[in-house]
Predict the structure.
Amino acid sequence: MNGSNVLKGMVAGFVATIVLSALMVMKSMMGLMPQLDVITMLAKMMGGLSPAVGGIAHFMIGSIVWGGLFAWLNPHLPGQAHWLKGIIFGTGAWLLMMIAVMPMAGAGLFGTNLGMMAPVMTLILHVIFGAVLGGVYGAERPESANLLQSAHR
């Protein structure tokens, strides 16, 4: 794993998190699913801290955790196009959120305590996040795993 690729993944994760956050703000402004507020949910999971702390956590998770993990997993994800790999990755992140984070936040498995639109809305957002993550990462021209392996021989 190349450190510069991880950094590129984190930059891509930051950009994708900005896009995701803008969509979440627009969703709230339109009055769509006000009960699905990931920032407040994160803040409550961290002990009822302010939404600002939840927002910082949201950006750290999207940038550092998901961005870095995407860079690490990218060579192993199916497909050639980075944006498609991003969608696959984003769908996996959504599944993890649905079976681990949502129940821990008290929203139930797949967030069904928030209504049946919660899993659909979050899947759409994660697919968009993944497409942006992969697209930006690909535009940053990450070093190929093949080049890295041949350099270490």
